[in-house]
Structures are given as C-alpha cells and as structure tokens.
Amino acid sequence: MALSHARAGEVVSVEPLGSELESTNTTTLVKTDHLEIIRLILKSGKSLPNHIAPGILIVQCLEGRVLFQCLGETHELTPGQFLHLPDAEPHAVESLESAALLLTIVRTPSNDPVIDETSEKS
C-alpha cells in the first residue's frame, strides 16, 4: 500500500502529541520532487548518527528536547526553536527526552545548467 501524503491545500496538524508521543512513529507529511516535510519522532536516549539531508534542511522542535550537532557546534533544541542548514550539511541528533521534530527539506536543483556570464555572445 502506498503512503498517503498531504495534498496541496490540505490542513495538517503538527501540534504536540503529548501522551501519544511514545506510541507515534515518524511520518512523511509532504513529499514532492523539491520538498519533503517529515514529523520525526525520537524516543528518549535514541540518536541519529552523522548524516546529510538531500537539500537545505530546516529543523523545528515541536516537543521534547534534543541535542543537534552541526557546523562544529552542539545546540539544544526545545519546543518553539528551529535551525536551518545549507544543502547537504552533515549533522547528528540525540534525544534528551522523547521528542517530535518537524523537518523540512528543500531540494536544490543539481542539474541546472551553469550559465557563464563572462563568455561573449557571438
């Protein structure tokens, strides 16, 4: 069975899960060629080792607390905070308590033609 994602114009709730957090799984909410939005659930003490996202990454903490390692620094993210990373930047995440994060990945076109503005036109 194919996973269903939110349709354009559909309202999607990302409110805190509260008591349902422990029994909820990670869900991809939106997936297109250029955009992916995921509600990532990390149980207390779990981590994601160093990895990259295929595009610009925006990470918003919806609930819980995580340590987010990127660009040579470690940040504690708590509800209401977000950070963003450039395309394909390595990062790692460790949950200090069960947490829900909203991940937005904006894929950058990798096959756009490069225009050399210094070349002369014939």
Describe the structure.
It is a single chain. The chain has 122 residues and is mostly beta strands. It has a single domain, classed as Sandwich (Jelly Rolls), CATH 2.60.120.10. Helix content is 0%, strand content 48%. It contains no helices and seven strands. Strands 1, 2, 3, 4, 5, 6 and 7 form a seven-stranded antiparallel sheet that branches. The radius of gyration is 17 Å and the shape is globular. This is AraC-like ligand binding domain protein. Keywords: DNA-binding. GO terms for molecular function: DNA binding. It holds the Pfam family AraC_binding.
List the helices and strands and how they pair.
Elements: E1 27-31, E2 35-42, E3 47-51, E4 56-70, E5 73-77, E6 82-85, E7 91-106
Antiparallel strand pairs: 1-2, 2-7, 3-7, 4-5, 4-6, 4-7
Short description:
With 122 residues, this protein is an all-beta fold. Helices cover 0% and strands 48% of the residues.
**Shape estimate:** globular
CATH structural fold name: Jelly Rolls
CATH homologous superfamily title: Jelly Rolls
Structural class: mainly beta
How many separate domains make up the residues? 1
Q: How much is the radius of gyration in Å? A: 17 Å
Question: Helix and strand succession?
Answer: EEEEEEE
Q: What is the CATH level 1 assignment?
A: Mainly Beta
What is the second-level CATH architecture?
Sandwich
- The share of residues in extended strands comes to over 45%
On the 0 to 100 scale, the average pLDDT is 89
Distance between the termini: 55 Å
- What percent of residues adopt helix (DSSP H or I)? under 10%
Q: Low-confidence spans: pLDDT under 50, at least 5 residues? A: 111-122
**How many alpha or pi helices?**
0
Total beta strand runs: 7
Note the main sheet. Answer: 7 strands, antiparallel
Protein name: AraC-like ligand binding domain protein
Domain AraC-type arabinose-binding/dimerisation: 46-99
Organism: Gimesia aquarii
GO molecular function: DNA binding
